[in-house]
Amino acid sequence: MAATLAAAAFLYWKAAHLPPSILLGYPGDGFFPKISLAVILIFGSLLLVSTFFASDAEAAHTPENAEEADENSSGPIKFDLVEASLILGVSLAYMSLLRPLGLEIATTIFMFVLLFPRLLMPAPKAAAVALGGALITMVLVYFAFVIGLNVPLPLKFLPVFLGEY
Questions:
Q1: What is the pLDDT of residues 87-104, one digit of tens each?
Q2: Which UniProt keywords apply (predicted)?
Q3: Which of the residues 18, 23, 115, 153 has an alpha carbon 20 to 30 A from that of 72?
Q4: Which residues of 128-153 are buried (b: 16+ CB within 10 A; e: fewer)?
Q5: What angle do CA 100, 106, 107 make, to 5 degrees?
Q6: CA 74 → CA 64, 65, 148, distances in Å?
């Protein structure tokens, strides 16, 4: 694990020295390698630190083979065709409605529709949590793609409130 982190740190350092973009406002050659290596470094470090603090009881039983590690090895893999079809349909609707509704409204509706039925809590609380998650996702998508990467996405009201980026 330490060797992987050392290699990721070295590659991050190399990616930081890649040339910047020739177009103003667009990510350079090292943008995506730096992001992926940063994720590897962060989660790898967390995993390494957690192994140092793991108790002996947690580390005592490690599975010997794949069958022992698989908790649901007694039956076949189940695939919910209705659930997969619903997600596919909602995704197609999102792509179709992105331009007329705008990124803000379409993303919020899309995430709400995906989150709400999966939250195992009373309906009013699930609706509030799903709406909060949908709004947070919409803001993150806006800042990542419109502000950070300068991707021209159809917007309805966010540019007005945030200074016409």
A1: 999 999 999 999 999 999
A2: Membrane, Transmembrane, Transmembrane helix
A3: 115
A4: eebeebbeebbeebbeeebeeeeeeb
A5: 145
A6: 17, 15, 47
